[in-house]
Amino acid sequence: MKRDSGSKQRTPKKVTHMPDGQGAVLSTAAGQALTDELRSSFQGEVIDRGHPGYDEARAVWNGLIDRRPALIARCSGTADVVEAVRVARKHRPLVSIRGGGHQVAGSGVCDDGLVIDLSRMKGVHVDPTARTARAQAGVTWGELDRETQLHALATPGGEISATGIAGLTLGGGFGFVMRAFGLSCDSVRSLEIVTADGAVRTVSREEEPELFWAARGGGRGLGVVTSFEFGLHPLGPEVAGVLVLHPYERAEEVLRAWRDATYTAPETVTPELLLWSVPADPAIPQELHRSNCVMVGAVYGGPPGDAATAALAPQRELGPPLMDLSGTVPYVALQSANTWRFPDGERYFMKSHFMDELSDEAISTLVEWYSRRPTPESLIVVRTLGGAVARVGPDDSAFAHRSARYNVSVDAGWRDPALDETAIGWARSAWDAMKRFSSGGTYLNFAGLGEDANELRGAVFGSHEERLEHTRAAYDPEGLFAPAAGRP
């Protein structure tokens, strides 16, 4: 593989373990004591290493992650979470918290500790009159969209329907309509959280506002969030969108034209550009399948019609395309359109930069590094922020990158474990090469693996890092969730 003269290719570290500074590796006796005590008070399922469902229960979306917890507490509801926290506080194992499980770093599972697993907590209640939805932490975006779209309502979140609402929202939450409606965390009205003392707290702007501030973009380590109340926006059931495939030979030209078009895009439009492979979709001629291309996408955050067509037009007019698949689609179909391209169990690595500008030199660097990608599943994504994302005050939530114009994510995907070093090395080196164009920030949900956490902590939380640490210490003075707070 070619090397960039200004970027050092690094050998990936072992990825099955995370750097955890607190929490005990349980002895056999201690693990049994914890298991026995939890089983005596637990309504859900307690899964130890001898359980026939252990391997399935410890598996996460990213097949690169292979961790072996001592115990998995699969909670049936908030009371089970309280019991798991109580037992953890007594026995002090290493603790991780799992929601939907669709996270690159796989931080929901840990080695040799206790996993508090909320993935079976799937309740959703929609109030169409109040335009709110209450959803438990194991719900995925596809499951939430299914319920809210019965009333032509949506809350912004996710680009893959299998993504869990909890992790995405706590880290900020990019989505197809974020310029119109903000990040996922911006639509949170309140949330229920079990803190380290075992208390069940409902937090909002009025109740425990500092914890509410931290939970919107501050990620892990505040407690166990059991449910979210989202505000909903009128959207759907049909939405207007752009999907135009351009020849890869014109990649730099299309990127420059797309960048210029983003400057004048209205807030109702959320543009996105991908350097990727043509999907093997029946609507696309077979001879184009898996060939390199430039994908230009955009979604209109309002009803389809003449206004939508006019607002989206600049995203379609970037030169002669390979194919133009733009049109009106059901919102639930839009949200799930790419899910099949990121199947469970394959191997993934993603790392990103926030950027204030996308210079011609940055564009050339992106295209050059994309040309070195190791597999057809690997891609580079440029997302456009601004609009409703930027209208939220910089200190209104823990999300620290309100003023950035773009996020550039280098996403490696592959199947063969023999390619681990090559695929991760490509993504790290491409990220290194783009660092000089960055505004200095990294998106928490695309922040690499566990070994990247310390290096990127300041880049993820920026000026909010100290305030977050104070908030965590106030609610968890003994550091029960400190290892979780240190993970991406």
TrEMBL record:
Residues 1-24 are annotated as: Disordered. Residues 65-235 form the FAD-binding PCMH-type domain. PROSITE patterns: FAD_PCMH, OX2_COVAL_FAD. It comes from the Bacteria. Keywords: FAD, Flavoprotein, Oxidoreductase. Its cofactor is FAD. It holds the Pfam family FAD_binding_4. The keyword Flavoprotein applies. Belongs to the oxygen-dependent FAD-linked oxidoreductase family. This is FAD-binding oxidoreductase. It comes from Streptomyces hirsutus.
